[in-house]
Design a protein that fits this description.
This protein is of the alpha+beta class. It is about 45% helix and about 15% strand. The protein is built from 14 helices and eight strands. It has a four-stranded mixed β-sheet with strand order 1-4-5-8. Strands 2-3-7-6 form a four-stranded antiparallel β-sheet, with no helix packed on it. Strand 6 and strand 7 (about 225-235) form a beta hairpin. It is globular, with a radius of gyration of 22 Å.
């Protein structure tokens, strides 16, 4: 196996690194150094009342837009960069290494590819440019109370009424809805059809009358997701993407793009490096509780981050050769989500009772309380984007060929 870049890959990596080094706003550099930040900060900054934060979002979106890197996997004819899987891998690797946020969110990752495949010319012309420019941010209305892993059991209804659909129901875990301008959602349009066949894919203004967004605050006192209620929300019939009652299959559509999860390996590596660098300082030595057991755990986390890195290489190698990863992607997701929890726990153990101090402005808190915050916040990592149980079932049945039941 050859881990080295080809000459062309090395040139592209240098180009990406040059743009990041030359154009990434100081705000995002500082957030990355503090192990904070990400796409959520960009989405909040673009509508922030703080002019400096808003300008940082504008500047960074412009820098990526000039290269076509807001949507690196979209075809060039739709404003993307049309990058190959390996180029996307390199791009994501460099972005993660710098802690640089993406700017398109679910509009770029999910809605855009759906519109490119299933949208009308009018829908593409209206929405794709606004996604690329950062003018419109999107959120996803999929999960419902009682319909998470079994999403096809969703109960939100959309009734055709004249030139409109009237939507009633509830969504939950709506990430970024409080910062979004628009929402795309799955709703049941034929309650008598088999559960996968009576669903339609709709998109509409998140501020439409009857839409209510309520914050959900997680255990770490962070606001990232929400519950969203629809009460007699009227949306025009041309908000439908694809055919009525075929929304399940529309929603399953994504362009074939890089999903190696390389960012997970890079983030864990950066976390370990920051921990080791801090332990070398006088302050770190004073607060550390590095017993032989903890030292062994730190070594284990480093080895595991390298394993995850190689899982990513396996996936991207398959995609680059035209194969479609299946259980391999589940293996990587499962390993990454559990590693993130283990990494946070190891960091908390490293500082013993000092890790109980939460406030980042308390001088007694090691590394600003980074590890206790990430430990509490990481509870959801084995649930979000497909639970660990679901991933293990995929690995067992599709990877190992074990029987169901």
């Amino acid at each position: 196996m050859d881990w080295a870049d080809t000459a062309e890959q090395a040139s592209f990596r240098s180009e990406v690194r040059g743009v990041i080094e030359g154009r990434l706003p100081d705000r995002y550099r500082k957030l990355a150094e503090a192990a904070e930040g990400g796409a959520g900060d960009y989405q909040a900054d673009r509508i922030s009342e703080n002019s400096e934060h808003q300008q940082a979002a504008v500047d960074w979106a412009q820098a990526l837009s000039e290269q076509g890197w807001v949507a690196p996997h979209w075809p060039k004819e739709y404003g993307g960069a049309g990058l190959s899987p390996m180029e996307q891998f390199i791009f994501n690797q460099e972005m993660a290494s710098a802690g640089a946020p993406g700017v398109g969110g679910s509009g770029v990752a999910m809605l855009g590819p759906v519109l490119i495949i299933h949208g009308t010319d009018e829908q593409k012309a209206e929405h794709l440019p606004k996604i690329l420019s950062g003018e419109a941010a999107w959120c996803q209305g999929y999960s419902e109370p009682g319909s998470g892993s079994d999403l096809a059991s969703l109960q939100t209804r959309a009734v055709h009424d004249g030139d409109d659909y009237v939507i009633n129901g509830q969504k939950i875990w709506t990430s970024g809805a409080h910062n979004a301008d628009w929402i795309f959602a799955l709703a049941r349009t034929d309650p008598d059809a088999p559960k996968h066949r009576g669903i339609s894919f709709l998109m509409f203004d998140r501020r439409s009358p009857g839409v209510t967004v309520r914050p959900l605050i997680n255990m770490a006192w962070q606001h990232g997701f929400n519950e969203t209620f629809f009460e007699d929300v009227r949306v025009p019939a041309d908000a439908l993407i694809g055919e009525e009652n075929r929304g399940w299959y529309v929603g399953a559509t994504l362009l074939d793009f890089e999903r190696s999860n390389i960012s997970g390996a890079i983030v864990n590596r950066r976390t370990l490096t920051a921990l080791l660098d801090y332990l070398k300082t006088d302050d770190g030595q004073a607060k550390a509780n590095v017993t032989p057991s903890v030292r062994g755990e730190i070594a284990d986390r480093f080895i595991e981050s390298e394993v995850l890195f190689n899982f990513s290489f396996r996936i991207i190698s398959m995609q680059d050769s035209g194969q479609i990863p299946n259980y391999e992607a589940s293996t990587s997701k499962l390993f990454n989500s559990e590693l993130s929890q283990d990494m946070s726990l190891t960091g908390a153990k490293t500082f013993g009772l000092h890790s109980n101090i939460w406030e980042d402005d308390d001088g007694r808190a090691p590394m600003g309380g980074r590890f206790i915050k990430s430990y509490v916040g990481s509870v959801a990592s084995t649930i979000a984007a497909g639970t660990s149980e679901i991933q293990r079932n995929i690995i067992a049945t599709r990877g190992l060929g074990l029987p169901r039941g």
